[in-house]
């Protein structure tokens, strides 16, 4: 701030600097001193150049037809191809699963009663409904596909209604139904032998963003309890248990996921009996889960270590058993304290699902690259493709971190 | 001690509720489960190896590798052994990770400090940078940078700076010292280390004198001169002893039909894409760590410094940052470890790092053995990082 | 990580090394006694209802995704033929997509029933990976360069940077070639074909080496095909064919027989349009299609009329070639080349100039 020399010889002060309005804001935040002004000018110049060249590229050089051509297959992968689902249309199955998820979202909205959940629920459904109105795409999307997409709106409403006007409107029911939905989704996608319209689809044909999301959801739900177990095991007083947990954690944390996946491809078939039913989806899920659990364990251990000893001692003096004090006193506090780290690990897990290309799974990244290779007229559009994929991932991961920040605020982390 | 009433029915704590028994049993059981699981895997693997004639063992290590390695920091011929080739690849990974860690830390601190800047544009730009790059899978980013590097002009039309530095989509070639006589080179490097040490000693002694007496002693200038003096003497000594200078500078020069620069040091395009991707991705995490660290330092510290008249940058350098380091270092180490492990994605964009070369090795060598070697190599690297981190942590701990 | 953990980990690492070292010494030569087979691969496949093939989806002609996202190509069709012979359904296949470098470990693991991914037959691979069933395509390694470099021989590639796919025989041959002629070639290795192509097109490397047919296939998709030229030298032999895992003779024989069916029926002029379903009087054809006699179906464990299903659904060798590699695909000429048939079977002395030949089915 300017600090005028106020001596008797100089009674006349310069007019005060404006500190209000747009000009005042600009002065305070952009031009408060010489250093700041230089910074502003330099960064404006850099920003200008970056913006200018990217806008020029967007307007004149980029060609996004590859996205439109891939369209639905980015989401579905090879799921609806002739070889995956010969002689019939399997498109409705992932869509039906999606309807269930929207219903859950609606229930979440009904239970939370607005706020963030409401905004996300409405946002998701609005995007889905907008998809159904696209002029092209989604594998020459027929009327049935469009209608099923539009059906997400009533599904959301139904979920909301169920939460508000039936006995299902509790968090416990939501959790039960969420697990149920996951199971139903898997059954729907996999199909059942002998039921018309439900012809089995090999997991090798599951792909696209659907695969990334499935792996992420499964990995997150499984790696969390496993991580908690490992963290507790690592703090256990039993030396053998502790040693085993330490070994597990350090080995899985010390080796890159890509190497672990390679190993699962080549060593797992050797390490299990000949016909041990492990398909590539399960294998990917297991490796990602174990890898993530090792990291999760370290995060939760951090939270446990940060807890004051008094908490356990108070629990003990109240006569709580060890498992009771762990379950009800230490763990909840520890987890609450490390929510950002845990969500960070969830995000990392979601990002890591792109690595399943190593075991031949066709996630969104692998599948679109394979498409470019098979149809070389699109090879020149690789940059557009990767930018688009980056945006897709960013939307999901950013929402995750946004939600986590809101949960933190809600729980009052750092304010208690 | 509580007095246990010796009633008629009391027969001591039943065995199944005795804490020590339970704990002991738990340990034995878990140990048994773990051991039998490992044994089961082992039996299965050795059975499969027998049934399907799968090669195994480590006798291949001394065989000639006979496969090209795209880029190598250590000298490599196709007639070198598997073991040496593995070492060459491990060195690639190690050097990539060291350079990557240094650059990512520097960039991360820069972005993290920018994020804390009072300048709205700068702090917003840093926020966008952080939120974008850490939320997009590294693999996607690597592919993107791969194509960006390809979009540079090709080697025969590339940029040339001062006829010494060549920048094109095949890589960046710069002048680089080389030692015609390896012994002389190594000797000089050893002597130069001594020179650096003596320079540091002089610097430290003068700083000490300055703080104690207040007499201006020019520690930096004199320290550097001490280093230069000793190094020059070493150069002279080695030159006389071996009859030629220990190092020459080799300048890259386009040669042959294809005009590819030969000589100097060339960082290939794949390495550049890998480094850029890794550094940017990791720096976005480090920036957040740095921000959290700076925020963890009490507000009073910087206010006190400001009231002493220290300008912003000096406050940061001498007051806030040193204190923040204690919070920053542990997560920073784990990020560096992540960078090392993430460098294995090089396989996807064609840089010959450890994983890439090792996977190629599985063509001509037993896959089981190769994977054991990769695991051990990465575990060793993460151990090394943890050790460095622990030592550093101990050094900067509050007394 | 605490210091103690570090010590423990070091101990474990040392232990692992010791374990492996001991294991290598302690286990003498593989035991001679045959291990009782729990279940033959044929039974496994029958129970599973699909044939699992390791293949690719990145090279037009051999294995790629068509515009509808289906796996198609020469290699995929070979897998379909096997599935039809064993299960009667050309769609009962599961394609496991792998990179070139993963081929060895994948087939060694025995997890796939067949590896058809442009695999070159070499003795060490035959010994280490699995059994080579039949050469289905004769290829040789070549180089592609841009015309404007003015090169007309691979020997001019002195100090060049050459793009190559990781974990292939091409990578190894390139090294041999460079050593032999002292060319000091720098190899740029990529795991995936799209990156190889992108790097070559943007001139990160001066030349692109691969099997000649794949060069042609990939090159045919280039924007300005005429700006590129394939150099005349062929620096290696690349006989390509399917590989089956070690350890099941019966399955190996089935795959060989099915490959033979495809070639043999072309030699006898039977294609998907004229597969006989009743005796024709031609004993060889009748035997092949299970109408009289036998070529060992019972021993192999496949249906009497397996060939009928295969040829009807997938076509004979010639049809598969035409569809994927010939006029219907990447347009590699076949007449008078090495991939023409050895001889016309209905004629006593009519060599066709090629090398495609299978053991007679009888």
What does it look like?
The complex is a heterotrimer of chains A (416), B (399) and C (362). Chain A has 416 residues and is mostly helical. Chain A has a domain at 219-365 and 412-416: Orthogonal Bundle (MetI-like fold), CATH 1.10.3720.10. Chain A has 19 helices and one strand. The model of chain A has no long low-confidence stretch (mean pLDDT 84). Chain B is α+β, with helices and mostly antiparallel strands. Chain B has a domain at 82-151 and 267-396: MetI-like fold. Chain B is built from twelve helices and eight strands. A four-stranded antiparallel β-sheet of chain B has the order 1-2-3-8. A two-stranded antiparallel sheet of chain B has the order 4-5. Chain B is globular and about 85 Å long. Chain C contains 13 helices and 14 strands. Chain C is globular. Chain C folds into two domains: 41-136 and 241-324, D-Maltodextrin-Binding Protein, domain 2 (3-Layer(aba) Sandwich); 139-238, 3-Layer(aba) Sandwich (D-Maltodextrin-Binding Protein, domain 2). In chain C, the strands form four sheets. In chain C, strands 8, 9, 10, 11, 12 and 13 form a six-stranded mixed β-sheet that branches. A three-stranded parallel β-sheet of chain C has the order 5-1-6. Chains in contact: A-B, A-C, B-C. At the B-C interface, helix 1, helix 4, helix 10, helix 11 and helix 12 of B face helix 1, helix 4, helix 5, helix 6 and strand 10 of C.
Could you say what the CATH architecture of one domain in chain B is?
A: Orthogonal Bundle
Beta fraction of the residues of chain B? Answer: 5-15%
Q: Tally of extended strands of chain A?
A: 1
Mean pLDDT of chain A, nearest integer?
84
* CATH topology (level 3) name of one domain in chain A: MetI-like fold
**Major sheet description of chain B:** 4 strands, antiparallel
Low-confidence stretches of chain B: none
CATH fold-level topology of one domain in chain B: MetI-like fold
Short summary:
The complex is a heterotrimer of chains A (416), B (399) and C (362). Chain B has helices spanning 19-51, 82-115, 120-133, 138-150, 182-213, 219-242, 269-296, 299-307, 312-342, 346-349, 354-361, 367-396; strands at 159-161, 165-168, 171-174, 176-178, 248-250, 253-255, 260-262, 265-268. Chain B has 399 residues and is α+β, with helices and mostly antiparallel strands.
């Amino acid at each position: 701030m300017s600090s005028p020399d106020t001596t008797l010889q100089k009674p006349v002060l310069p007019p005060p600097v404006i500190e209000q309005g747009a000009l005042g804001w600009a002065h305070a935040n952009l031009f408060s001193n010489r250093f700041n002004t230089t910074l502003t000018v330099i960064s404006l110049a850099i920003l200008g150049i970056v913006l200018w060249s990217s806008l020029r590229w967007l307007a004149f050089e980029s060609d996004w037809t590859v996205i439109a051509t891939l369209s639905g297959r980015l989401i579905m992968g090879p799921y609806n191809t002739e070889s995956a689902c010969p002689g019939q249309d399997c498109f409705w199955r992932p869509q039906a699963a999606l309807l269930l998820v929207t219903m859950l979202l609606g229930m979440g909205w009904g239970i939370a009663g607005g706020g963030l959940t409401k905004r996300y629920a409405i946002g998701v459904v609005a995007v889905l409904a907008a998809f159904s109105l696209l002029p092209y795409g989604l594998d020459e999307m027929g009327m049935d596909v469009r209608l099923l997409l539009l059906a997400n709106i009533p599904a959301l409403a139904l979920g909301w209604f169920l939460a508000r006007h039936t006995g299902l409107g509790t968090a416990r029911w939501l959790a039960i139904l969420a697990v149920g939905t996951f199971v139903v989704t898997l059954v729907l996608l996999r199909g059942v032998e002998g039921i018309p319209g439900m012809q089995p689809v090999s997991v090798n044909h599951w792909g696209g963003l659907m695969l990334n999301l499935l792996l992420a959801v499964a990995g997150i739900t499984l790696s969390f309890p496993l991580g908690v177990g490992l963290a507790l095991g690592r703090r256990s007083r039993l030396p053998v248990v502790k040693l085993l947990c330490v070994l597990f954690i350090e080995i899985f944390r010390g080796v890159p996921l890509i190497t672990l996946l390679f190993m699962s491809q080549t060593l797992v078939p050797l390490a299990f009996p000949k016909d041990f039913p492990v398909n590539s989806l399960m294998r990917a899920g297991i490796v990602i889960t174990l890898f993530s659990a090792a990291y999760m364990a370290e995060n939760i251990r951090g939270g446990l270590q940060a807890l004051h000893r008094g908490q356990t001692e108070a629990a003990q003096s109240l006569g709580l058993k060890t498992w009771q004090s762990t379950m009800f006193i230490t763990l909840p506090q520890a987890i609450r304290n490390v929510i950002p780290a845990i969500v960070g690990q969830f995000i990392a897990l979601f990002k890591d699902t792109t690595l399943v290309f190593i075991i031949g799974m066709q996630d969104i990244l692998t599948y679109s690259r394979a498409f470019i290779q098979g149809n070389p007229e699109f090879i020149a559009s690789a940059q557009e493709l990767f930018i688009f994929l980056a945006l897709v991932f960013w939307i999901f991961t950013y929402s995750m971190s946004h939600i986590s920040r809101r949960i933190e605020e809600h729980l009052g982390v750092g304010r208690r | 001690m509580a007095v246990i009433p010796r009633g008629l029915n009391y027969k001591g704590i039943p065995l199944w509720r005795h804490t020590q028994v339970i704990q002991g049993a738990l340990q034995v059981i878990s140990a048994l489960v773990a051991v039998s699981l490992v044994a089961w895997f082992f039996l299965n693997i050795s059975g499969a190896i027998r049934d399907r004639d799968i090669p195994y063992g480590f006798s291949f290590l001394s065989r000639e590798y006979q496969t090209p390695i795209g880029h190598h920091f250590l000298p490599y011929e196709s007639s070198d052994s598997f073991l040496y080739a593995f070492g060459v690849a491990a060195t690639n990974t190690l050097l990539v990770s060291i350079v990557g860690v240094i650059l990512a830390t520097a960039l991360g601190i820069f972005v993290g400090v920018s994020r804390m800047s009072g300048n709205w544009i700068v702090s917003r730009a840093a926020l966008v940078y952080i939120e974008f790059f850490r939320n997009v899978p590294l693999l996607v980013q690597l592919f993107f940078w791969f194509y960006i590097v390809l979009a540079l002009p090709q080697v025969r039309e590339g940029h040339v700076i001062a006829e010494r530095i060549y920048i094109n989509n095949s890589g960046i070639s710069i002048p680089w010292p080389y030692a015609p006589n390896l012994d002389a080179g190594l000797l000089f490097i050893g002597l130069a280390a001594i020179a650096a040490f003596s320079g540091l000693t002089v610097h430290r002694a003068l700083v000490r004198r300055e703080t104690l007496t207040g007499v201006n002693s020019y520690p930096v200038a004199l320290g550097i001169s001490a280093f230069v003096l000793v190094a020059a003497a070493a150069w002279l000594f080695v030159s006389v002893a071996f009859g030629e200078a220990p190092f020459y500078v080799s300048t890259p020069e386009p040669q042959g039909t294809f005009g590819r620069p030969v000589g100097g040091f060339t960082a290939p395009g794949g390495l550049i894409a890998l480094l850029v991707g890794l550094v940017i991705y990791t720096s976005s995490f480090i920036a957040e760590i740095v921000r959290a660290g700076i925020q963890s330092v009490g507000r009073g510290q910087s206010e006190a410094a400001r009231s002493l008249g220290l300008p912003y940058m000096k406050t940061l350098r001498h007051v806030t940052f040193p204190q923040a380091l204690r919070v920053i270092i542990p997560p920073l180490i784990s990020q560096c470890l992540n960078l090392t492990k993430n460098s294995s994605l090089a396989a996807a964009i064609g840089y010959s790092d450890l994983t890439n070369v090792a996977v190629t090795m599985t063509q001509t060598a037993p896959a089981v053995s190769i994977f054991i070697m990769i695991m051990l190599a990465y575990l060793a690297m993460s151990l090394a990082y943890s050790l460095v981190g622990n030592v550093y942590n101990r050094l900067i701990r509050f007394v | 990580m605490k210091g103690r953990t570090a010590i423990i980990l070091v101990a474990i690492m040392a232990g692992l090394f010791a374990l492996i070292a001991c294991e290598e010494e302690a286990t003498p030569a593989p035991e001679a006694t045959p291990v009782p087979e729990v279940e033959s691969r044929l039974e496994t496949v029958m129970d599973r209802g699909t044939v699992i093939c390791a293949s690719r989806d990145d090279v037009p002609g051999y294995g790629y995704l068509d515009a509808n996202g289906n796996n198609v190509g020469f290699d995929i069709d070979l897998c379909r033929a096997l599935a039809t012979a064993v299960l009667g359904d050309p769609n009962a296949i599961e394609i496991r997509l792998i990179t070139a470098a993963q081929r060895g470990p994948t087939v060694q693991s025995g997890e796939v029933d067949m590896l058809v991914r442009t695999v070159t037959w070499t003795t060490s691979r035959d010994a280490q990976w699995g059994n080579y069933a039949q050469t289905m395509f004769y290829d040789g390694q070549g180089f592609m360069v841009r015309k404007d470099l003015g090169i007309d021989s691979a020997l001019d590639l002195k100090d060049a940077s050459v793009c190559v796919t990781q974990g292939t025989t091409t990578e190894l041959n390139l090294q041999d070639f460079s050593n032999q002629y002292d060319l000091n070639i720098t190899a740029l290795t990529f795991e995936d074909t799209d990156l190889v192509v992108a790097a070559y097109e943007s001139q990160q490397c001066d030349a692109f080496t691969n099997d000649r047919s794949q060069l042609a296939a990939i090159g045919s998709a280039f924007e300005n095909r005429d700006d590129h030229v394939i150099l005349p030298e062929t620096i290696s032999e690349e006989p390509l064919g399917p590989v089956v895992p070690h350890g099941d003779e019966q399955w190996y024989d089935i795959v060989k027989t099915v490959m033979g069916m495809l070639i043999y029926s072309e030699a006898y002029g039977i294609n998907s349009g004229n597969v006989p379903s009743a005796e024709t009087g031609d004993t060889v054809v009748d035997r092949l299609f299970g109408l009289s006699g036998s070529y060992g179906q019972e021993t192999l464990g496949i249906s009497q009329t397996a060939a009928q299903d295969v040829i009807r659904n997938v076509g004979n060798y010639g049809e598969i070639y035409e569809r994927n590699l010939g006029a219907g695909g990447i347009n590699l000429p076949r007449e008078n080349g090495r991939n023409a048939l050895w001889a016309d079977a209905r004629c006593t002395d009519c060599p066709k100039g090629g090398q495609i030949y299978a053991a007679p089915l009888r």
